[in-house]
DNA sequence: GATGAATGAGAGTTCATTCAT
DNA sequence: TATGAATGAACTCTCATTCAT
């Protein structure tokens, strides 16, 4: 029996690639860097991946799997309360941010190195993105149907905006800092999304001039 | 007098680079591609730019200038109305989206090729991003001070979320389609931001279960 | 086991570079020329040398080693004779000239291509030159101490003059001809050095006019 | 009438080239460097010289002229003395070294950048070298004929050795120092050449062993 | 004569990929 | 499976030279 199975060797190379791409970027990282990190020979890389592009695609698909598994995981019930919809939203955002916080190198690669590499990679990224968009859109739709969310905005647009905010929150607050307070971040975003910017829900604002 | 001035030749090469990077990506685009597009010799490129990285930086800075000029432009007054703050917000978003819609190739390059290229390029992108963040943060702060916007969220976080939504809106709705309805898009985003997701501002939602 | 070891491949490339530089000069020789001579691919060159400058430095250092090994080699005793010092000198010159005659391409490169290439190369050439200068200076000093050589001239200057004569003898009489009589050349140089130009060691020259 | 004549402009460019080649070497110096030094436009260079190689050849020939003029200059008589031949030799060496000391940049270019550039340049350098060799050979021959110099060595070989010593003296003692004592240098070299290394012109050295 | 923007051949170098061991 | 020396296409960049003004 070999010391490492094929599965393990592949994982080892994949992690080395994630680590390398996160630090050098796809373009500047070389196969040499990856195999040096993985402590295997150059040729070994090509036993598990077809090309440099292929290992990038594998990273995307690996992350895709993680997202899918997270989304499929059953969620613990939220205590019924006044702002039930908001609590659900906040929990979702937290789980989403936690996933990225738990895999910062991969997140870095997916979010910041997702440059035009290859049609196949492009497709993989599109699928990953679509997974998120579908999830959020379906979710908003259901919440609207149940009267838990304002029906005035299209679930599809909402999903896009949600994804944009998530990306930016990860890039701006999770990737740079070793320990961001994910909980607080999710709470604040949920708060903004739930209540909106309108200052006073009853009265008229007092004589505003142009800014 | 030469047929083209140095300024024009530089612009010509810059536009060729934008066009090329938007289609092939920074990595796959070669200097040969750029000069072929610009219809000049290979060496001419190096009279105006130091390197492939340098021309990318120039693109970023060119776009930076456009954004700055747009932000400095005086805005026509918004008719005083019930939802004054919302109207102001919507107008800002529209102008922002219009700028990107008016320079789709450049937007594509900035938003999708903003990969790790070079420390200098990195810095340039950071400056561009900061320009937007500062603008939105200042704006929200002022509107809050004037009572036109809910004081419950930090202007800084708001700015980040706003930028995330803008990026995603551009990537999702402006870059793919030749003619997106920018006005409608701005209106919908403003609507979501203004009112939030809360379904009913008075009553309690009716017996929701977990989603 | 590969057909050639790394050591051999390096030597093969080094020899090809010596051959090429000797014929085309550093400037006009291209990496293509070198690898064509060595019958390997272009990239192989860069497995063994960092750059074109680096291989030149390697040539210099390779020759440095040869000179050092020659100088360290024990010399067979010279039969005690009337002109003991002169015999020692002649033998040294012969060995020196033989080394260059035995590696004419390298000598050509070292002596005629020793142009300003690189600070590192410059330093390497300086070390090589210093090796020779030190050897001759030490030698003269010892011979003076033992009373075998005229004490009227500084060993340091003597070393420089000796080096100059050697360089010129190699350039003028060894590099151009496939088979120069190294022995006779060494004998004549030693003769000149030993006896000097003074025509008659006792009498006064007869009524010389200006030349 | 133009501000500068063609002759002057050519000289200006020639001096700029000497200055540049002395500092950067032929290979690393560019036409840009030369015209920048001469403060003229790039194209102007090509009105006076055919190519980069051509200007190098012009430098060689310019120096050739200087050497020739010096050699043709009548020499002041040397006071008749005991060592008449030695005094003549010393004066010649001094004049030779003075020429190089008076044109250090050109000397640097001729002696250290005289790398393989071009067949034409090669030929020019050969002519320059031959000028010196002929001069010394003729000189030694005449001195031998007049009994002022030892007849035991061939004038031709002597000329080569003399040139080698001159080159080395210039490289080692004149080029590096702003103010070398040319007189003393000439005196020491003449001393070595005149008297040789033989320690004692009458007795036998006392029982020397091998070094 | 003088200019300097434009040229483009050609250089050195990189590195993803292969394959004999 | 694993290795790593070898490959060579493709790249960026330089710079001597030209020529319309």
Key words describing this protein structure:
0% strand; 2 domains; homotetramer; DNA-binding; 9 helices; Tetracycline Repressor, domain 2; Arc Repressor Mutant, subunit A; 70% helix; 211 residues; elongated; mainly alpha
What report would you give on this structure?
4 copies of one chain form a homotetramer. By secondary structure, the first copy, chain A, is an all-alpha fold. The first copy, chain A, has 2 domains: 1-49, Homeodomain-like (Arc Repressor Mutant, subunit A, Orthogonal Bundle); 56-197, Orthogonal Bundle (Tetracycline Repressor, domain 2), CATH 1.10.357.10. Chain A is 70% helix and 0% strand. Chain A has 9 helices and no strands. The first copy, chain A, has helices at residues 6-28, 31-38, 42-48, 52-72, 84-102, 104-112, 119-145, 155-174, 182-195. In chain A, helix 5 crosses helix 8 (155-174). The first copy, chain A, starts with 5 loop residues before the first helix and ends in a 16-residue tail after the last helix. The interface between A and B is large, with 68 and 66 residues. Chain B binds a DNA duplex (21 and 21 nucleotides) through residues 1-2, 6, 9, 30-32, 40-47, 51-52.
């Amino acid at each position: 029996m070999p010391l490492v199975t094929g599965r393990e060797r592949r994982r080892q190379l994949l992690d080395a690639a994630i680590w390398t791409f996160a630090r050098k970027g796809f373009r500047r990282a070389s196969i040499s860097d990856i195999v040096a990190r993985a402590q295997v020979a150059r040729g070994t890389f090509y036993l598990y991946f077809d090309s440099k592009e292929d290992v990038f695609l594998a990273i995307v698909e690996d992350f895709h799997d993680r997202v899918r598994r997270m989304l499929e995981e059953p969620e613990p019930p939220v205590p019924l309360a006044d702002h039930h919809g908001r609590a659900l939203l906040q929990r979702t955002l937290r789980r989403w941010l936690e996933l990225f916080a738990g895999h910062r190198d991969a997140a870095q690669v997916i979010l910041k190195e997702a440059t035009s590499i290859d049609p196949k990679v492009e497709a993989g990224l599109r699928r990953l993105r679509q997974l998120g968009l579908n999830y959020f859109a379906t979710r908003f739709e259901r919440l609207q149907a149940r009267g838990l969310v304002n029906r005035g905005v299209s679930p599809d647009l909402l999903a896009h905006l949600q994804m944009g905010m998530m990306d930016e929150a990860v890039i701006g607050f999770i990737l740079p800092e070793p320990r961001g307070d994910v909980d607080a971040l999710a709470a604040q975003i949920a708060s903004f999304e739930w209540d909106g910017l309108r200052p006073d829900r009853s009265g008229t604002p007092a004589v505003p001039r142009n800014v």
